Amino acid sequence: MENKENTPKPAENAAPRPQGAPMHREGGPGPRRPGGRRFAPRRKVCRLCAEHIDLVDYKQAQIVKTFCTDTGKILSRRITGACAKHQRQIMRAVKINRNLSLMSYNG
């Protein structure tokens, strides 16, 4: 048998909690922040465009490796901030370097 004395009782003046909303100490949903987000994320700028690099070649191993993880995976545009044109060039350069064994195939 359950002991009904130990179960928490909802507050009489508390609004019903939406499904999946976090609980606050007083039993209602958590505190609301005015304005929603705390900060606006800074827009990433393509580093290659800023340095006026028109063509990313497979021979530029140092540049190509900065856009890869240590295991050899190509980092996404969302993470690196590269533009679409340079991301395609980086992709081709990495794949050529993998075939020439200049970079690893791990990942």
How would you summarize this macromolecular structure in one to three sentences?
The chain has helices spanning 47-50, 61-66, 77-80, 84-99. The chain has 107 residues and is mostly helical. It is elongated, with a radius of gyration of 26 Å.
Return the CATH topology of the domain at 47-99: 30s Ribosomal Protein S18
The largest pleated sheet is described as: none
CATH architecture of the domain at 47-99: Irregular
Q: Please give the number of β-strands.
A: 0
Beta percentage is under 5%
Question: What is the CATH class of the domain at 47-99?
Answer: Few Secondary Structures
N to C succession of SSEs: HHHH
Name the shape in a single word.
Answer: elongated
Characterise this structure.
With 107 residues, this protein is mainly alpha-helical. The protein has a domain at 47-99: Ribosomal protein S18 (30s Ribosomal Protein S18, Irregular). The protein is 28% helix and 0% strand. It contains 4 helices and no strands. The longest helix is centred in the last third of the chain and has 16 residues, at 84-99. It starts with 46 loop residues before the first helix and ends in an 8-residue tail after the last helix. The mean pLDDT is 80.
Strand and helix map with partners:
Elements: H1 47-50, H2 61-66, H3 77-80, H4 84-99
Features:
107 residues, 4 helices, 30s Ribosomal Protein S18, mainly alpha
